[in-house]
Design a protein that fits this description.
- By secondary structure, this protein is mainly beta.
- It has strands at 17-25, 28-35, 49-56, 58-63, 66-71, 75-78, 84-89, 93-100.
- It has a single domain, classed as Jelly Rolls (Sandwich), CATH 2.60.120.
Length: 105
């Protein structure tokens, strides 16, 4: 059995983002992401599908070159290979991401 609290010890880092794997099971990964307002936008284009929900805060993302504004409770699905980046976040910004990695072979 594995248990915890998503909001425990959720202070943002001084800058950037902190990625914490909460569960990894076969090709599934559940991750908590805590973002500082001082981020350097990085481009992502991942080999896995990702479903993400913003639990707390606000964020502005660029997805395939289009702006997406998110507020607490908003979620989105990013199919594998979708170019995206987090442009700006409020503090504290707390995310829950579910990654579905490709099946081996």
């Amino acid at each position: 059995m594995l248990s915890g609290n998503l909001f425990a010890q959720a202070q943002p880092p001084a800058e950037g983002e902190r990625f914490e794997t909460l569960l990894r099971q076969r090709n599934l990964q559940i991750e908590r992401i805590i973002s500082s307002t001082r981020i350097t936008p990085a481009d992502y284009q991942q080999p896995q599908d990702e479903w993400v929900v913003l639990l707390q805060g606000e964020a502005r993302l660029s997805i395939n070159g289009q702006t997406q504004v998110m507020r607490s409770g908003d979620y989105l699905f990013l199919p594998a290979g979708t170019p995206h980046r987090v442009e700006q976040v409020s503090e504290p910004a707390l995310w829950l991401a579910i990654h579905l990695h490709p099946e081996p072979g």
